[in-house]
Design brief:
- The protein has a single domain (6-138), classed as Gcn5-related N-acetyltransferase (GNAT) (Aminopeptidase), CATH 3.40.630.
- The chain is 32% helix and 23% strand.
- The chain contains 4 helices and 5 strands; from the N terminus they run βααβββαβα.
- It has helices at residues 15-28, 39-48, 102-116, 131-140, and strands at 5-9, 56-63, 66-76, 85-93, 122-123.
- The chain has a 5-stranded mixed sheet with strand order 1-2-3-4-5, sandwiched between helices.
- The chain starts with a strand and ends in a 13-residue tail after the last helix.
- Residues 5-153 form the N-acetyltransferase domain.
- This is GNAT family N-acetyltransferase.
- One of its GO terms (molecular function) is N-acetyltransferase activity.
């Protein structure tokens, strides 16, 4: 990664390079092969990035014309604040980009956009086994102490 890394909003022409990053992200969390996301979910996710009525956004990290990482985030209402919350939902970098500040740059770009949107907080989740990411997250955020529960249907 000798060139400068820039973080920018995703563009329609990024699809061919975004898709392997998206697939890599999903595979990391066990969504590949028989458990892969349905194609229509990927297509709907992609279309939401470009729909002004959707609160879902995407940024990419790029160096020397190649995408190195992605971050997807969304805004939502809360019962405890007037301003919207910003949920950083997906973050992924190529293996070669890890440990080189790309993930940090993507998160910082979300912080900047959330502040500009009037959001009072950015939050995210990761799996407890994602030790590499947790090392970064412990430096740039704080653990809330909340435990996540879910029920799948």
């Amino acid at each position: 990664m000798p060139g400068q890394t820039i973080v920018r909003p995703i563009e329609q022409q990024d699809y061919e390079e975004w898709l392997p990053l998206w697939d890599g992200y999903n595979a990391f969390y066990g969504r590949s092969g028989e458990t892969a996301l349905a194609g229509e979910i990927t297509q709907m996710t992609w279309s939401r990035f470009f729909d002004a009525y959707e609160p879902v956004h995407a940024l990419v990290a790029e160096s020397e014309g190649r995408l190195l990482g992605l971050v997807h985030y969304l805004y939502h209402r809360s019962t405890t604040a007037i301003a919207p919350n910003c949920y950083l939902q997906d973050l992924f970098t190529t293996e070669a980009a890890r440990g080189k500040g790309v993930g940090r740059a993507l998160i910082n770009a979300v912080y900047e956009r959330a502040k500009a949107a009037g959001s009072g907080r950015v939050y995210w989740l990761t799996h407890e086994t994602n030790h590499t990411a947790i090392q970064l997250y412990d430096k740039i955020g704080e653990r809330s102490g909340f435990v996540v529960y879910r029920k799948l249907f």
